[in-house]
Amino acid sequence: MGNASSIEPTKTIFLDIDGKKEKIMFSRHCGTRDIHDLIAHAAGVSRYAEISLKDSTGAFVSLNPTMPINTQSSPYKVTSKEPSPTTESSNGDGEVFTQVLSQVASQFNNQFSKEGVFKVEEIKTDIATRLSALERKMELEGLKAVEIEKCKRDISDIKDQIWNAQKKFVDFNRLSNETQADSGETQTPRPVYVGNTVDHFYSSLSDERKISLKRDVPSYPKYTLSQETIEYLKQPTFDIWHWEPNEMLSLLEHMFHELGLVAEFNINPITLKRFFLCVQENYRNNPFHNFRHCFCVTQMMYGMIHLCHLWEVMTREDLGILMTACVCHDLDHPGYNNTYQINARTELAIRYNDISPLENHHCAVAFKILSNPECNIFANVDKDTFKRIRALKMVLIKCCDISNEVRPMEVSEPWVDCLLEEYFNQSDREKMEGLPVAPFMDRDKVTKPTAQIGFIKFVLIPMFETVAKLFPVIDSTMVEPLRIARDRYEDMKEKNSMPPPPSQSNKKKTVTEK
Predict the structure, then answer these.
(1) CA dist 183 to 189, 204, 214, 494, Å?
(2) Which of 389, 413, 417, 423 is most exposed, with the fewest beta carbons within 10 Å of its own?
(3) Cα–Cα distance for residue pair 17/43, rounded to 1 Å
(4) Mapping DSSP to helix (H, G, I), strand (E, B) and coil, where does residue 12 land?
(5) Which of 82, 73, 70, 14 lies closest to 42 in space, CA to CA?
C-alpha cells in the first residue's frame, strides 16, 4: 500500500518577499486562485492584491499549479500591489466593488451632514456584508468552472465506456469454434467483429486471466528441426511469415537451448514451455504489435548474436537477458501508442503518470508472468543475478525491434502494411474522440513510400551504421539492405507522383479539337 503522498503529490515553491525567504506547498488539485491567496497570505497582503513572480533571470513566472519547481537558492521574487479604490475595473466584480464604495461615500456624506457624527461601526458592518456578498459571488463563479470541468471528464468517461462496451462484444460462434478445436475437431477460427469491422483492440481474455493462466501439459508438440532450418534461423533474411504459432513457439524454445541459456539459468524445460505459452497469450491480436512481431524481433536478435559472435564480448547471462527482453518487449500492447494513451487519459497513462506508459506496462506484465512459479524461467538464479536482470538496459533491442527493412522485400513489405493499418486504426479513433492526430498516422495524408523513406533515411540507417562501427560485418548484411530499401521506396514515391498518361479517348478528342 502506498502513502498519501504517492496519491496526491505536493509541490514546494520557494519565495523571496522583500528579502524574507518563505516557502509554500500545494497539491496538484489546487487552482490558480488558491495559489494566489496562499502567496498573498505569505506576503501579508489582501487576497485582492495583484501578485507577480519573477525567477532569477527576471522572467515572469506564470501563477498556476504547473509552474516550474525552484530551489531554496533560487526563489521567485514576489511583487504585490494593492488595488486602488479609484481605479475602474473592466470586469463585473470591479464594477460591483466601485458601486459599494460609491454608496459608502454617499452614506458618509449624508450621515456627516445630518448628524455630524461618523458612524464607524455601522459603515464597517455594511462594508463587510457587501464584501461577503461579493466573495460569495466569486466563489459561485469558481464552482461553475469546476462543475464544467467535471462535466467534461464525465463526458470523456462516458465515451470510454461506450467504446469499451462496443469492444467487449464477443462473437460466441468464434468461442464455440475454439472449444471444438480444443476437442480435436478441425475448425477455422472466426475473428471478433464490432459491427462490420474486425476488432483488433479487444482480442481475448482479461489481463489477469491471461497472466495467471496455467496448463499442466503444454499443448503444442515438439517439432524436429532440419539442419537447413537450424542454419536458416540464424540469418537476418529469415522469413517469419511461413511459420504457424506453435512452430514459432518451438523455434523460440530451440533458440534458448542452442544458445546455452537453459543450462546457464538452470531452466526447467517444462517451465520454459509454459513461459512461452503465457507470453504468447499476452500478445493481443493487433495488426502489427502481435506475437509474430515478438518472434520477429527475437529472431533478429538471435541472428545478430550469431552474425556478430556476441558470445565473445558478452556473457551468457547478458545474452539470456537480451533474448528474454526481446520476447517480452511489447507484451499486452493495446495497439495504440503512448501519445494516444496520454491524450486520451487512459488507465495506463494515469497508472504511470504519463511517463512511458506502454514501456512500463510491458515490463510490469513481463515480471507479473515471471512471478508465477510455473512460468518463472529465472526461478533457479540467485538474488543478485535476478536484480541484474531487472536493472540491465538493452542496447541492441531497439535495432531488432525496428529491423524489418533489413529483411528481403517480400518479408519486410507486409510488415509496413500491418503497421500502417494499426496507425490508421489509432488515427480513426483519435478523430472520433476529438484528440490530436499525428500526421504520419493519418490515412488521408500518409502513403507507404512517404512513411518509410524518412524513417529509413534518418532513423534506421544512422542507427545501424553506429552498430556497424562495433561489428563491421553488419554493414554488408544489414546496412546495405537498408540503403536498397530506401532507394526502392524513393522510386515508388517518384512513380506515384507522376501524372497518369492520357487515355486513348482523350487523345482522340484532343486531335479532333485541333
Answers:
(1) 14, 19, 18, 54
(2) 417
(3) 6
(4) strand
(5) 14
Q: Are the beta carbons of 295 and 279 closer than 8 angstroms? A: no
Within 10 Å of residue 66's Cβ, how many Cβ atoms?
Answer: 8
**Which sequence positions are flagged as catalytic?**
289
Instruction: Answer whether 233's CB lies under 8 Å from 299's CB.
Output: yes
Total residue count of the chain as it appears in this document: 514
pLDDT in tens, the chain (514 residues): 444 444 457 888 899 888 888 888 888 778 888 888 888 888 888 888 888 888 888 888 888 888 888 888 889 898 888 876 544 444 556 666 666 666 666 665 655 555 545 567 777 788 888 888 887 777 777 667 667 767 777 787 787 777 666 554 444 344 334 434 444 444 333 333 333 344 433 333 334 445 544 444 455 666 788 899 999 999 988 988 888 989 999 999 999 999 999 999 999 988 899 999 999 999 999 988 899 999 998 998 899 899 888 888 888 988 988 899 889 888 999 988 888 888 888 898 888 887 788 888 888 888 888 888 888 898 888 888 777 666 554 444 454 455 566 677 777 777 777 777 877 888 888 888 888 888 777 888 878 788 777 777 777 777 778 777 777 777 877 788 888 888 888 888 888 766 666 655 454 444 444 3
- Rounded to whole angstroms, how far apart are CA atoms 55 and 200? 50
| Helix, strand or coil, per DSSP, at residue 499 | coil
Q: Pairing state of beta strands 50-54 and 76-81? A: antiparallel
In sequence order, what are the residues at sequence separation of 6 or more whose Cβ sits closer than 8 angstroms to the Cβ of residue 113? none
Instruction: Give how far Cα 322 sits from Cα of 191, 238, 308, Å.
Output: 33, 19, 14
Chain centroid to CA 168: 22
**What 3 state SS string does 35-53 have?**
HHHHHHHHHCCCCCCEEEE
Q: Which three cell numbers stand for residue 49?
A: 492584491
Q: What is the pTM of this model?
A: 0.49
